[in-house]
Amino acid sequence: HKKLSTFPADFLWGSASAAYQVEGAPFEDGKKASVWDNFVRIPGKTFKGTNGDVAVDHYHRYKEDVALMKELGLKSYRFSVAWTRVLPEGRGAVNSAGLKFYENLVDELIENGIEPIITLYHWDLPQSLQDLYGGWESREIIGDFLNYAEILFETFKGKVKYWVSLNEQNVFTNQGWVTATHPPGKKDMKLFYQVNHIANLANATVINKFHELEIPGQIGPSFAYTPQYAKDSDPRNVLAAENAEEMYSHFWMDVYMYGEYPLAALALLREQGLAPVFEAGDAALLKSAQPDFLGINYYQSATNAWNPLDGGVGAASFNTTGKKGTTKESGVPGLHKKIQNPFVERTNWDWEIDPEGLRIALRRITSRYRIPIMITENGLGEYDKLEEGKVHDDYRINYLESHVRAIKEAITDGATVIGYHTWSYTDLLSWLNGYQKRYGFVYVDQDETMEGSLKRIPKDSYYWYQHLIETNAEEI
Ligand code: BG6
Predict the structure, then answer these.
(1) pLDDT at 396 over 80
(2) Nearest-angstrom CA–CA distance, 297 and 423
(3) Quick check: 267 pLDDT over 80?
(4) Nearest partner of 357 among 423, 396, 393, 405, judged by Cα
(5) Would the CB of 170 count as within 6 Å of ligand 1?
(6) Which sign, positive or negative, has the C-alpha torsion 168, 300, 253, 257?
(7) Does the pLDDT value for residue 473 go beyond 90?
(8) Could you confirm whether the keyword Hydrolase appears in this record (predicted)?
(9) Atom of ligand 1 nearest to the CA of 168
(10) CB 300 within 8 A of CB 402
(11) How remote is the CA of residue 428 from the centroid of ligand 1, in Å?
């Protein structure tokens, strides 16, 4: 474009976090264990056994954190509620002391002119529900999730206008039941697709309830969207990219938006005996729910090549080493193989840096679904160095600036984008990578000893974002 559109005046320039990654205080004021409180204690699961027992102590320091948000000029703050604070066993009597924390946080945000955005579920399932009926493996979760959501809707209606139902359903189901790197740590493809189906039903049920109760505001899921590219124009490589897009993107977004699984994916799962079991009413329920916006967490794109059915590479691997170039090739024989994209840079965890991919993502979603998009996460996880009381994270500024530019281009192309939330506001616990993989605007003195002073120090990127918000990104 010769000239780019400006961001809307009410654009939500925000930042995000999740309860387990920032709060600490896992057993305070009546809270009980979530599956994450226990999973991190299994030896070898997380980097040097790091956990969120203290995290960055947001539970006790939320006022200081909100004061810094105000100084930054944040328009919105996306955070998640820990289900186990509100309902320590996932169901039963409300724990008002736990709920109070979020009432205080919401009030503090509003008093400081910051729009609160609540994520209902960011992975910290009550352990009691896992023990009782296997959590997401049972349809019983639908009623419990609905009950929990309704408590929050009623408590915060009129105060909280934006709600995220499930955070990255594609990630928590994949990590929980395919790679076994998140709780409950299983490898079972059939169960994975069934769990995912149940999560779809729970998502639809909660969205319908929100609309039925006429809660003023908007609700939608947050999807981790990784746009898939082909290695080149070899038709087999193009098909591999189509396969990946179908199995890893449409497989979720089509259900959210159309209430239907995509056909090629369903055909494949039926052939393999992995298709989810539908009960009477499921299809109608999925069709009936309509999100008001689609939340997108964008970090990177992925590039694909053909992977033969016989002798192709298998099982996904993750780079949790923090060393560039250590990711092994992975894929699904007969479907696709994920390869390195030679045209982009990579982080130390081998995450590909691709701002253009965000424009492509916003364009693809807009042309397939025509729905407003809220970017609920985007950011760079890197080692940061504290030098004489400062963090010069120009690499993060470059990353964010190029992604903001990509959004501006996508808006000019015709996408409706209502907000941008960087991951993350303060440094926090990276689920598997401890405290060394930092994402925040605000450096927190915390590390794998989990005995840091917890002092907050704004990084260079904090001041960069402050200026960007002040000028509504006009200079980009
Ligand atoms: C998203 C999650 O998947 O990515 C966040 O919603 C997470 O909770 C973020 O922290 C970054 O992932 P990681 O593994 O680098 O911490």
Answers:
(1) yes
(2) 9
(3) yes
(4) 405
(5) no
(6) positive
(7) yes
(8) yes
(9) 6
(10) no
(11) 10
CB atoms within 10 A of CB 188: 14
The two three-digit tokens of residue 45, written as one number = 């699961």
Query: Is the pLDDT confidence value at 316 over 70?
Result: no
With a CB cutoff of 8 Å and minimum separation 6, the contacts of 44 are none
User: Is any atom of ligand 1 closer than 6 Å to the C-beta of 224?
Assistant: yes
Q: Is 437 in the pocket of ligand 1 (CB under 6 A)?
A: yes
In percent, how much of the chain has pLDDT > 90? 96
Q: Residue 128 C-alpha to ligand 1 middle, in angstroms?
A: 25
Looking at the DSSP assignment, which residues form a beta bridge with residue 420? 13, 375
Q: Whose CA is nearest to atom 14 of ligand 1?
A: 430
Instruction: Say how many Å lie between the CA of residue 11 and the centre of ligand 1.
Output: 24
**CB-ligand 1 contact for 366 (6 Å cutoff):** no
Is residue 250 within 8 Å of 262, Cβ to Cβ?
yes
- Residue at 291: amino acid letter: P
The answer, yes or no, to whether any atom of ligand 1 lies below 6 A from the CB of 423, is: yes
Q: Residue 322 pLDDT more than 90?
A: no
Residue ID of nearest Cα to ligand 1 atom 12: 430
Q: Which atom of ligand 1 sits closest to the CA of residue 222?
A: 6
Tell me the pLDDT of the chain averaged across its residues: 97
For residue 420, the SS3 value is strand
Q: How many helices (H) and strands (E) does the chain have?
A: 16, 16
Task: State the catalytic residues.
Answer: 168, 377
Dihedral-angle region of residue 238 (phi above 0 means left; psi in -120 to 50 means alpha; beta otherwise)? alpha
Probe residue for ligand 1, chosen from 15, 377, 437 as the CB with the greatest number of ligand atoms within 8 Å: 377
**Strand partners of residue 346:** 352
Whether 229 contacts 304, CB under 8 Å: yes
Which residues are CB-neighbours of 284 under 8 A, at least 6 positions away? none
pLDDT of residue 328: 84
What are the helix (H) ranges across 157-260?
169-177, 189-212, 235-245, 251-258
